[in-house]
């Protein structure tokens, strides 16, 4: 039997050859590293209007092109760097999105200085587990994703709408949106229980 035949996954996870591994090893596990969180926000920016399959297939090329999404380095990208990115056939060559990623890196720096880390700020918007969560795979936004998107836009971030932010929350483990019968749901619940939430140095929420 194949792995697909022996395990129940979220429906989307079997829709592309590279999705099962991503689903089983990454999607929904809580993340506290600034660089990984920033990378996912950037990739969500590039996904806007496209499929995640397209972005996932190009992820290694995105990492190489954007200095592995080192926030300090991306914030310093100049005209030559932008020109090089627009010539890079291995990534999505959308100038507005490229400029948004650079802009967001620049806006992330004062946020990190204020809050202690990007992770601490973002996890401050984790949906409240005390409330009754909606059934998995039934919504594309939540009050917290709407509030976080609003705050990021207020701080000058771009391409960070509520739907984009909710997709980010799903993938980075801020909510467990694995289907009820998905074999990963229980493991993600356990990972979230054991996860140490980063604390904010100067909460402004």
From TrEMBL:
InterPro entries: Adenine_glyco, DNA-3mA_glycosylase, DNA_glycosylase. Signal peptide: none annotated. The keyword Metal-binding applies. Keywords: Glycosidase, Hydrolase, Metal-binding, Zinc. Zn(2+) binds at residues 10, 23, 178, 182. The keyword Hydrolase applies. SUPFAM superfamilies: DNA-glycosylase. Coiled coil: none annotated. Its EC number is 3.2.2.20. One of its GO terms (biological process) is base-excision repair. GO terms for molecular function: DNA-3-methyladenine glycosylase activity; metal ion binding. Pfam families: Adenine_glyco. It is an enzyme of class 3 (hydrolase). This is DNA-3-methyladenine glycosylase I. It comes from Marinomonas posidonica (strain CECT 7376 / NCIMB 14433 / IVIA-Po-181). The lineage of its organism: Bacteria, Pseudomonadati, Pseudomonadota, Gammaproteobacteria, Oceanospirillales.
